[in-house]
Amino acid sequence: MRPRAKKPPMSKESLLPLLMGHVLAEGLGQASLRPLAKAAGTSDRMLIYHFGSKEKLIADLLSFAAGVYAAGLEAVITADARPATRAELLARILEQNADPASQPFKQLWWEIVGGAARDVPGFRPAARGMVNELLVWLERNMPPGDPDPAGGARLLLTVIEGTLMLSSLGHEDTARAGLLAGGLIEA
Amino acid sequence: MRPRAKKPPMSKESLLPLLMGHVLAEGLGQASLRPLAKAAGTSDRMLIYHFGSKEKLIADLLSFAAGVYAAGLEAVITADARPATRAELLARILEQNADPASQPFKQLWWEIVGGAARDVPGFRPAARGMVNELLVWLERNMPPGDPDPAGGARLLLTVIEGTLMLSSLGHEDTARAGLLAGGLIEA
DNA sequence: CCAAAAATGTAGCGATTGCTACGTGCGCTT
DNA sequence: AAGCGCACGTAGCAATCGCTACATTTTTGG
What we know:
The structure is a homodimer.
Chain A lengths: L11 H15 L6 H8 L3 H8 L2 H26 L6 H13 L4 H15 L5 H18 L8 H20 L3 H10 L6
Chain A binds a DNA duplex through helix 3.
């Protein structure tokens, strides 16, 4: 028998992971239809056919990325025991974030933030969705007996995002020194 | 006398402010040569003539923007008296930053961060230059008698950047709640 | 089994991209 | 005055952009 071509009909759902792979690797700004299509094994013609327009495609892609991000957080939740202090929780997140494997996602994140700041059509809901996801995750995973879980989660969220940004610029040591000085992590 | 045409020969220095105006208004991603040229009252031809290539133009533009940012910080330095506590200093900066007039610059900032994270040719030095500028400014303006000015400045830098990002997404209240819970600002 | 509908390939359109080839006027030196 | 080089305008090129018209195949429903 000759090698079977992929028969399962392509759909938004089957395309989105491939498209996101290309965007993670190449960036959102350089994502034009033809390269995207090639990465997904199709043609620009079919991308428009399935998504209607590039704008809708990007919007779908961003909300898909938000879902992937949320799923990643859930995976961390059940992975290991809950940290006993805020400092431990913060350290764990930052450590996970320092993983080079999460760098493409960080790069994508800044493009999303930039788009959201300029109110590009699908960007703000995606960005807000992701930080909300992180916020409720933090709130649920605050150390037991924390005096102010809601406020503490918001504090951690803020310093996490700040550290994220500084580390994207190669300023991770600066952020770390600040967190140490603030007693937010321990040496 | 008939209306005088502009005679002073155009140069990088005279073009950069106009180019930056366009970039602040329209964004770095949409900055192609012809619109940029129109905003500066020239042609794409002359932009290439003066800057050599678009890449060099963008690099020059970013370092120019970094200079403008630094000058803005210096202006704040001499503007009023030094805050007496970290909380006051932080509050003052965040207040200045909440000014809608600084929003275009924030929008540009995320595009610079995104480019730096992806290591696009002129972006990382510009981004690092700006956060360094802010860092030394903070260090110089820490309240007198602060127990750890260096660490405190780095702590403030981190929470400032985090707050900046959250506020760009419309999450300023979340950041504020976090800073309150952390005792970094006062109600 | 046959027709309607859904899915896909091919080709191309008009616009925009960064950049260049070429010509021209203008001021400066010798 | 003759030459020369800088500063600029005009025109255009090859590549790419998002998208569409049209033809064709594949799937599905009665």
